[in-house]
Amino acid sequence: MITSFLTPGFSINGLWSFLIAAVVISGLDYLAESLMGVDASPFGKGIKEFIIEAIIIYLARYLVPNMGITIIGAVLAAVVIGILDAVFPARAM
């Protein structure tokens, strides 16, 4: 939710779309990690993982209703998510 407010070129309308986007992005992240052995979360640091995360966010627009995102918006969203995860870590180190 925070990412869509902070990122130009990224919009999601409706609470259900936010929830579906979270599930879809998590599922695509899990799929990328399983198939390629790449941790596409911000904790899997590196340019390759950053690019994969931006692609995952961009692909989610085709699976989530009421979600609009540009390529630049996906890259910026990956940056914002990385910064938010650095400030508020979801995993124990």
Identify the notable features of this structure and list them briefly.
single chain; mainly alpha; two-stranded antiparallel sheet; 4 helices; 93 residues; globular
Structural features, described:
With 93 residues, this protein is mainly α. The protein has one domain (2-87). 62% of the residues lie in helices and 6% in strands. The protein is built from four helices and two strands. A two-stranded antiparallel sheet has the order 1-2. Helix 2 packs across helix 3 and helix 3 (47-60) packs across helix 4. 30% of the residues are buried. The mean pLDDT is 83.
- How much helical structure, as a percent, in the residues? 55-70%
**What Rg is obtained from the alpha carbons, in whole angstroms?**
12 Å
Q: Low-confidence runs (pLDDT<50, min 5 residues)?
A: none
Total separate domains: 1
Helix and strand arrangement:
Blueprint: H1 2-6, E1 10-12, H2 15-36, H3 47-60, E2 67-69, H4 71-87
Antiparallel strand pairs: 1-2
Helix pairs in contact: 2-3, 3-4
Provide a brief overview of the structure.
It is built from four helices and two strands. It has 93 residues and is mainly alpha-helical.
